[in-house]
C-alpha cells in the first residue's frame, strides 16, 4: 500500500533506521451504542480503515512522534509526560499507562498516518492508542503483554490522560477484531464471542455527515454522569445489587424516575432499551434475518436521537434518506454522536442507486456533500 511505503520512507529519512510496521484498524458497531460504559452489550467489528504506524527504538529517553497526515510532530521525554491538549496525548497516555503498570518503556520514534476519516466516529483515537500499545509491547516487552491487557491500557489512557470517560468497546473491537466476524462483547465481564457475519448480497456502507465531533469537547462525559445519577436513584430503592444500568429494568425506571426526573429517565430508558434491542438483534443475526436486524437499527437511531440526544440534524437527515431508499435494510448513527457517520446495511444490487440518492438528497437538504465508505471486516491490531 502506498501509505505504508510513504510512512516507512518518512521514518527512514527522519530517523535513519528501518521501522517495524503496525496496522491498527478502526471499527464499526452494528448496534449497541453508549451501552459499553453502562456495563452493557455491544456488537462491533474491526474494519479495513486503519491507522498505520512505523515505529522503532531510540538510544535515549526521547519520544519523537510524527503525525504524517497533519505534517506535525511532537518531541518529549519518557521522564516527563506533560499533557499537550493535542493529538500527542493519545500516544503519551499509552506510554503513561505502561509506566504505571510497571512495564518496560524506552525512547522511541513513531511516524503514523491512516485511512480512517478523522472525526467520523470510526474510533481513530482507539486505533492509534492500540497501535502505540502494540508498539511498546513489541519494542520493549517481547510481545508478552496479552491483547486484553493492551485493550485495558488503551482505555485507561483515554480516561485518565486524554480525559474522555469512554467505555471499552472501541479499543476492544480495534484490537480483537476478526475478519468476517462481529464480536458480541459483554462490557461488564469482558466475556466475548465471535459470530460469523453472513452478509451475502448485503454490504456495510458508512455515510459521513461531514460534521466533525470531538468527544472530549462534547456532552459525552455529561451523558455518562447522567446515567450514573439515574443508577444512584434506582439503587436507593433496590440496594447494592444495582451496580449499573445493566441491572435496571424499565419497570424500575417507570416507577422511580419517569415522573421524578424526566431527563434522567430518558437517558436511562434509552440504554436499557438498547441493551434489549442488541440481544434481540443477535438472535436475528444468528438466524440470518437481516431485515429484522435492520429494523432494530432504526429503533436504535430513534432512541439515540430523541431520548439520548446525541445525534445532530445531519445524521437524522442521512437516516431519513436511507429509510426511503430501495434496498436499505437498516440505518442509524454510529459512535459517540454529535457528528460522524451513519452505518447502513445495503443490498449489493442497490449500492449504485443508494450512493446517488444519498449524495443528491443530502446535498439538496444540507448544502454539504456526504462521503460514502464501503467497509470490509478485517482482523484487529497486528504487526505487518
Task: Write a short abstract of this structure.
About 45% of the residues lie in helices and about 20% in strands. With about 375 residues, it is α+β, with helices and mostly antiparallel strands.
General description of the model:
- By secondary structure, the protein is an alpha+beta fold.
- It is built from eleven helices and 13 strands.
- Helix 3 crosses helix 4.
- The radius of gyration is 21 Å and the shape is globular.
- 48% of the residues are buried.
State the separation between the terminal residues, measured CA to CA: 12 Å
Largest sheet: 6 strands, mixed
Query: pLDDT below 50 for ≥5 consecutive residues: which ranges?
Result: none
Q: Enumerate the strands of the largest sheet in spatial order, edge to edge or round the barrel.
A: 5-4-6-3-1-13
Structural class: alpha+beta
Number of helices: 11
* Sequence of secondary-structure elements: HEEEEEHEHHHEEEHHHHHEEHEE
Average residue pLDDT: 94
* Helix content, binned percent: 40-55%
- Quaternary state of this entry equals single chain
- What's the shape? globular
Q: Rg from C-alpha positions?
A: 21 Å
Give the DSSP E fraction (strand runs of 2 or more residues).
15-25%
The count of β-strands is 13
Question: What is the topological layout?
Answer:
Elements: H1 2-15, E1 20-29, E2 41-42, E3 44-57, E4 62-67, E5 72-77, H2 88-100, E6 108-114, H3 124-140, H4 147-162, H5 169-176, E7 181-186, E8 192-196, E9 202-208, H6 220-238, H7 250-256, H8 262-287, H9 290-307, H10 313-323, E10 328-333, E11 341-347, H11 351-366, E12 371-375, E13 382-383
Parallel strand pairs: 4-6
Antiparallel strand pairs: 1-3, 1-13, 2-7, 3-6, 4-5, 7-8, 9-11, 9-12, 10-11
Helix pairs in contact: 2-3, 2-4, 3-4, 3-5, 4-5, 6-8, 8-9, 10-11
Amino acid at each position: 500500500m502506498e501509505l505504508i511505503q510513504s510512512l516507512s520512507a518518512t521514518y527512514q529519512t527522519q530517523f535513519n533506521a528501518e521501522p517495524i510496521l503496525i496496522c491498527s484498524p478502526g471499527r464499526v458497531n452494528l448496534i449497541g451504542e453508549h451501552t459499553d460504559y453502562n456495563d452493557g452489550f455491544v456488537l462491533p467489528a474491526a474494519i479495513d480503515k486503519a491507522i498505520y504506524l512505523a515505529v522503532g527504538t531510540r538510544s535515549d529517553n526521547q519520544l519523537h512522534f510524527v503525525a504524517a497526515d497533519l505534517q506535525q510532530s511532537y518531541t518529549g521525554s519518557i521522564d516527563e509526560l506533560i499533557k499537550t491538549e493535542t493529538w500527542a496525548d493519545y500516544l503519551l497516555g499509552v506510554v503513561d499507562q505502561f509506566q504505571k503498570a510497571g512495564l518496560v518503556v524506552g525512547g522511541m520514534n513513531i511516524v503514523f498516518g491512516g485511512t480512517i476519516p478523522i472525526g467520523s466516529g470510526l474510533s481513530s483515537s482507539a486505533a492509534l492508542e492500540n497501535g502505540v500499545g502494540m508498539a511498546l509491547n513489541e519494542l520493549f516487552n517481547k510481545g508478552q503483554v496479552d491483547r486484553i491487557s493492551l485493550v485495558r491500557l488503551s482505555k485507561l489512557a483515554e480516561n485518565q490522560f486524554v480525559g474522555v470517560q469512554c467505555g471499552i468497546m472501541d479499543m476492544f473491537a480495534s484490537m480483537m477484531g476478526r475478519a468476517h466476524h462481529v464480536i458480541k462483547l459483554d462490557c461488564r465481564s469482558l466475556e466475548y464471542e465471535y459470530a460469523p457475519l453472513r452478509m451475502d448480497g448485503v454490504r456495510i456502507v458508512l455515510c459521513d455527515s461531514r460534521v466533525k465531533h470531538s468527544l472530549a469537547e462534547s456532552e459525552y462525559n455529561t451523558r455518562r454522569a447522567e446515567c450514573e445519577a439515574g443508577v444512584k436513584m434506582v439503587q436507593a430503592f433496590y440496594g447494592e445489587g444495582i451496580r449499573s444500568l445493566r441491572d435496571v429494568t424499565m419497570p424500575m425506571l417507570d416507577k422511580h424516575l419517569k415522573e421524578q426526573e424526566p431527563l434522567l429517565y430518558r437517558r436511562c430508558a434509552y440504554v436499557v432499551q438498547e441493551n434489549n434491542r442488541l440481544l434481540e438483534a443477535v438472535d436475528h443475526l444468528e438466524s440470518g434475518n437481516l431485515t429484522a436486524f435492520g429494523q432494530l437499527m432504526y429503533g436504535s437511531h430513534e432512541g439515540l436521537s430523541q431520548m439520548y440526544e446525541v445525534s445532530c440534524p445531519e445524521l437524522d437527515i442521512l437516516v431519513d434518506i436511507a429509510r426511503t431508499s430501495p434496498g436499505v435494510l437498516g440505518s442509524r448513527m454510529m459512535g459517540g454522536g454529535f457528528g460522524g457517520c451513519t452505518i447502513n446495511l445495503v443490498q449489493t444490487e442497490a449500492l449504485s442507486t443508494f450512493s446517488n440518492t444519498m449524495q443528491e438528497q443530502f446535498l439538496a437538504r444540507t448544502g454539504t456533500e456526504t462521503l460514502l465508505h464501503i467497509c470490509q471486516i478485517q482482523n484487529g491490531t497486528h504487526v505487518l
